[in-house]
TrEMBL record:
Entry-linked SUPFAM superfamilies: P-loop containing nucleoside triphosphate hydrolases
Record-level Gene Ontology MF annotations: ATP binding
Organism: Azospirillum endophyticum
Record's protein name: ATP-binding cassette domain-containing protein
Keywords carried by this UniProt record: ATP-binding, Nodulation, Nucleotide-binding, Transport
Listed PANTHER family: ABC TRANSPORTER ATP-BINDING PROTEIN, ABC TRANSPORTER ATP-BINDING PROTEIN NATA
Length: 227
């Protein structure tokens, strides 16, 4: 069963052009899938539909086979999301922020602290746990956002333009960490970007979105040939 499957997805905001016009693709378990498209292609709209924030005009979103409109609780339990808008409290420390989100998920304190330690360690953030978010650079903040999104152990992670505002070394570090999540834990990743150079040899699948339609979909080599 695909981790994420979208099928015939349409969405309009009421203007004369649809934001999405019949989009379909799959993200397989353990696969790093890049959703590549210029600004305005429909990436954020797709994320809003895949997380249940918006209802599609037509079409389906299934997470591990559960339709998110009909079975939203079951579908959303396995989903972790890194939105473009920051969700962290700047005046709390890394640890305080993560404990807060763990409590929101109903994770007990001891279990939460174990999970937080393991996520911070693999994201190379453990030494930063006592620092306020305000004191961290952009790359570290994004990695804390990823740790937050992983606390409830999702099997599908959606990241909407996670590298916006980062310099090239910080982008490379972030991509390397997220590839490691796929390889080590079999987490399925959908990584949205407008930057073609974020597609690297470890990318399993690329979906090219353009003006609300899938222009190409396949392994990196196939998409390079069509682009
Ligand atoms: P179909 O004609 O069945 O829709 P697709 O072109 O979607 O075929 O997929 C062809 C092959 O690529 C299938 O074996 C499918 O499992 C695989 N595949 C499709 N989408 C993805 C993806 N996002 N990640 C990894 N493999 C994929
Ligand atoms: P991307 O994330 O790829 O930049 P979006 O999903 O934000 O693309 O935008 C797709 C299209 O939908 C664009 O034409 C955009 O102007 C339009 N759009 C996005 N959000 C809204 C909104 N809240 N109201 C009206 N139009 C919107």
């Amino acid at each position: 069963v695909p981790a994420l499957e979208v099928d015939g997805l349409r969405h309009g905001y009421g203007g004369n052009r649809l934001a999405l016009e019949g989009v379909g693709f799959r993200v397989m378990p353990g696969a790093f899938t890049c959703l590549l498209g210029p600004n305005g292609a429909g990436k954020s709209t797709l994320f809003a539909l895949a997380t249940g924030l918006l209802r599609p005009t037509a079409g389906q979103v299934r997470i591990h086979g559960h339709d998110i409109v009909q079975a939203s609780g079951d579908a959303l339990a396995g989903l972790g999301v890194v939105f473009q808008q920051p969700t962290l409290d700047l005046d709390l420390t890394v640890l305080q922020n993560l404990r807060y989100f763990a409590a929101l998920h109903g994770i007990g304190r001891r279990d939460a602290d174990r999970r937080i330690e393991s996520e911070l360690t693999r994201l190379s953030l453990f030494e930063r746990r006592g620092e306020k978010i305000r004191a961290l650079n952009g790359g570290h903040r994004r990695r804390v956002e990823i740790a937050r999104a992983l606390l409830h152990r999702p099997t599908l992670l959606l990241l909407d333009e996670p590298t916006v505002g980062l310099d090239i070394p910080a982008r490379r570090t972030l991509i390397r960490h997220v590839h490691a999540l796929c390889a080590e834990d079999g987490i399925a990743v959908l990584w949205a970007t407008h930057l073609i150079d974020e597609i690297d040899p470890a990318t399993d699948h690329v979906v090219v979105l353009h003006r609300g339609r899938v222009r190409a979909s396949g392994p990196v080599a196939v998409v390079n040939a069509e682009a």
